[in-house]
Design a protein that fits this description.
By secondary structure, this protein is an alpha/beta fold. Helices cover 45% and strands 14% of the residues. A seven-stranded parallel β-sheet has the order 3-2-1-4-5-6-7, with helices on both faces. Strand 2, helix 2 and strand 3 form a beta-alpha-beta unit.
Length: 258
Amino acid sequence: MGRVAGKVVVVTGGARGQGAAEVEALAREGATVLATDVLDAEGHALAGRLAADGLQVTYLPLDVRDRQAWDALASYLEEHHGRVDALVNNAGVAARDRIPDVDPEAWRRTFDINVTGPLHGIQALVPLMRAGASIVNVCSVAAMAGHVAAAYTASKWALRGLTRTASLELGGRGIRVNAVMPGLIETPLMASASPAFTSAALAEIPLGRAGTPADIAPLMVFLVSDESAYVNGAELVVDGGLTAHVSHKGIADAIAAP
């Protein structure tokens, strides 16, 4: 019996990178996991690989911006499982433009995915949750301080606020809502960052390295499990010590346009 045995868990953005590591970690600890994403080929491949190991993983396409798609997922969960025990709002996009260059459409897209998507998920799936259920919102260290990626930073601060509000509103029903703040993690999302950013950020990390998806996944297992039964409204930073000191101006200066 694993630490989350018998729990039904939804992970958004679960086809690759950090989301895929979370899906696998939860499944190996006994959960029935529904991995959702817009990357269908990668999602089906992940589910097939894990199912071949005897794990309970299903891939379902989901654009987190689409409330009707969330409602359809809720209907699927009700029909096949009768409930949902945890939602991991992992899906997110980067948006690194500075304020003078922010495109309004890119701003809206960033908020639609990084903030409104989790809101849709909470609204659609909470009716299927019982006391003891868990919601985990994947924020970022960008929500711990000011960063020059305007849309991304603002969206993660908004998700941090949504987490606190939801922890207050849903706590009375026994549903816990927490935020995880990853730092520099080696994922496809980080691979799109400039070498100047990566170099400057690495220099500010006391542990001297970037994190990996395997550094984040065990925390998700803990937050979904009953071991975290009294953890609610928490903001858990996993960044190798990056935000333990003031560093972000140095990073911003390193990547400033000449």
